[in-house]
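Appendix C: a fully annotated inverse folding record. The material below is reproduced so that readers can follow the format used throughout the book. The structure is listed first as tokens, followed by the designed sequence.
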């Protein structure tokens, strides 16, 4: 018999009151995979509004060479 449990919902990091900027490279690294691609919402747990914000900040960090485009 399979045991069923309620999976805990991921909380949006930014909805909890924390801000993410393009200079916060260590935090932004949590939102990209090992190949440098931006992770989807279902993986990160971010809400739609903040996922768009995070994607924009990652793109800004890539342009000024804080994050790589491709590894």
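Designed amino acids, in order:
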């Amino acid at each position: 018999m399979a045991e069923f449990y309620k999976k805990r919902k991921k909380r949006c990091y930014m909805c909890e009151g924390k801000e993410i900027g393009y200079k916060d490279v260590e935090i932004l690294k949590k939102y990209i995979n090992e190949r440098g691609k931006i992770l989807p919402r279902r993986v990160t747990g971010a809400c739609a509004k903040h996922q768009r914000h995070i994607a924009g900040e990652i793109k800004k960090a890539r342009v000024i060479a804080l994050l790589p485009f491709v590894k």
